[in-house]
# Entry
Amino acid sequence: MELLRLENLTKTFGGLTAVKDVNFTVNEGSISGLIGPNGAGKTTIFNLITGIYKVTRGAIYFQNVPIHDKEPHVIAGMGITRTFQNIRLFKNLTVYQNVLTACHHNADYGIFDAALRLKKFRRQERELKEFAGRLLELMELSGWKDKVANSLPYGLQRRLEIARALALKPKLLLLDEPAAGMNPDETRQLMNLIRRIRDEFGCTILVIEHHMDLIMGICDNIIVLNFGKKLAEGPPEKIQQDPLVIEAYLGEGGMPGA
Ligand SMILES: Nc1ncnc2c1ncn2[C@@H]1O[C@H](COP(=O)(O)OP(=O)(O)OP(=O)(O)O)[C@@H](O)[C@H]1O
# Structure
């Protein structure tokens, strides 16, 4: 079943067309990849889906509801969450505190419940702590729980960022270059984690990534962009052999990791 649909999506910045008439759908429960050479328009599409940028032309539907005219907080509230190319964490808080603060977005107790530590507050606090613990387990960060985020190796900081995004219980998780800066071992581990997030957490994933092994290894469907336009779409085996895709990457020195 379709979760997200982009229809003739176009974004211009002054005279530059960053995204031009892009159409694709993301099916519920799938892992989809958005790839393309540098400057192809991938992050711009994430910014359009999440409402950070206003759409110039075209439409975006989430669960068949138009979202291209909605504010970022409304879109987030509907169940779309993202991570960023540059890691955004509370660097001086512990791993656990980072996840727990994100979990608090789900709390609906009032200031009186909290101040008087009423039953509703105590029950929700217990549930949020359990959920934070579950997320740390899922992202294999339990052993780092009490470490300050800043002290974590780079690959683990990226995993912590994903745990924080999952704390918002998204239906659609957008990952912007989650394996950037990771070594091959860390990348392999991340691939397994992304599959687990889909299988155990039940959320749909759209991922931008330059690591081709990751994209080809986990995606059901891949959308290739070049100069803002959709160049190709299909399963990994089809994309890997597509002459147009290979040619687009040749200018950049070939398909990365292929
Ligand atoms: N806010 C902006 N103002 C002006 N131009 C922008 C803006 N955001 C993106 N662009 C331009 O739009 C084009 C697409 O950029 P985008 O960041 O979406 O590419 P990308 O495919 O994500 O690239 P990369 O793989 O390098 O991250 C680029 O030419 C970029 O300079």
